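SAMPLE LOG
Freezer: B-3
Tube label: C17
Construct: single chain, 450 aa
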Amino acid sequence: MTQHGFRILIVDDEPNIRAGLAKGLAGEADDLATAQDAEEAWTLFQQQHQQVVITDLKMSGRLSGLELLRQIKESRPETVVLVITAHGTIETAVEAMRLGAHDFVAKPVDLNMLRLQVRKAFAHYRLVEENRRLRARLDAMGEFPDMVGHSAAMQHVFDRIRQVANADVTVLVQGESGTGKELVARAIHNLSARKGRPFIAANVGALPETLVESELFGYEKGAYSGATRQKPGWFEMADGGTLFLDEIGEMPPKTQVDLLRLLEQRELRRLGGEVSIPIDVRLIAATNRDLDELAAENRFRQDLYYRINVVPLRIPPLRQRRDDIPPLVEHCLQQAEQRYGGPSRRVAPAAMRVLCDHPWPGNVRQLRNLMERLVVTVESPTIHAEDLPQEFRTVPRSEVITLEEAVEEAEKQAILAALANCHQHRERTAQLLGISVRTLHYKMNRYSLQ
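STRUCTURE (predicted):
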C-alpha cells in the first residue's frame, strides 16, 4: 500500500532490527531511508525531511533517541515520530510523548501492528498538512474568502470594496463576462451592516423583456393572464438587504423608468397593485457593457445611469492580472477536487506557463471550468501541458488589444505611479502629470482609482 509522496526514516543501532523494519515497511512509502544512530538520522532528516520517523530511544552515539525526537519536533513540528524501544519504562514513554512522539511501541515489534500505525501516522500527517494549508489560505484571503488576487489591480478592487461596504450607496460593478462581478457584490454585502439580511442576485439579461418588470417589482393576483397568485419581486425579496442586478444594460426602456422612480422614492408598486410599498434595499448593479457609451447614444437612460453610477468599480480581466493565475489555478483546482473527489493534483511548471500565457476570453469562469474538466479527465496526480485542451496547446498569436484599452491602461499606470511619487497628494500629482486637478479626479473616478 504505497502512500504517494511519503517518506519514512528508520533509526536503530541494531543492524538486524533496522533491516527487518525496512523490509517489513518497504511497501508503505515511496522512499525509505535507514540510519544506524541519531547523528546519521539527523543529517538525513535535514536533507530529506521525512514525514514519518521511526526511532529507537536508547542507542549508542552522542545523541539519544529522545534528543533526536526533540530536534526533529523543534525543526519540523508536523513530523510524525514513532518511538520503539526495549526499555519501555513509564518514565521514558511519558518523556517521549511530552516531547511530541505520536505513538510508543515496545520491542519485539509486531510488524502488522507497526504497518497499521504507519498508515495512521500518514493519515494524521495529511490531516495536519491540510489544516495548515487551509489556515494559510484563509489568512491570505482574509475578508474575501471567495476571491483570489494578489496583483496590484485586485488589491485596488479589494480596497474599493472596503471603502464602499458601509457607505450604503449604489455601486456599479463593471467588467467582462466571467470576471466575478457577483462575488464583488457579495463581498460588499458581507462587509456591510446589511450582512445577515437577504442578498438576492438576479440577471436581467436572462429574462425575456416581457418578464423583467414582473420579476423586478412583483405582481398581484390577476395582474395578467396566468397570475394566479400574488408574488413579491426581487426588490421585496431583498428588503433590508442587498439586490444585485447583473446585466442591467439589457433592461427594457420602460422598466428603466420604473427603476429610476423606485430608487428616488424608495417605494414600489406591484404589477396590478394600487398600494405603494416602502422598501429598504441597497442596489448593486453590474454590466459587461459600456453604459457611458450606451447613455451617450440614448440606448440607456442617462438619468438612470447617473443614479446607479454613484460609485463605479471596475474588475480587470484576467489577461491584465496574470500574476493571479497561479494562485487562481490552485484555488479552483482544490475546489474541483473537493467537489468531484479523487487524489490531490498539482500543475507541472510547463503547464502553468501555458495557462499564464493564455488570453482567457472567459476570464475566471473559464479557468474554473477548465480545472473541473481536468480533475475529471486527468488520472495522473500531475497535470502536464499535454493534458490541456488543444486550444491551450496551440501557440497563440500575439495578443491584440484595442487602442482604447492600451490608452486606458497607460493612463492608469501613469496616474498610479504619479500618486505614489507624490504620496497621494492630488494637486502635486496633477501638476506632475500636466493636467488639472479636476481632470485627475475625473480619470481617477473613471478608472476606479479613488
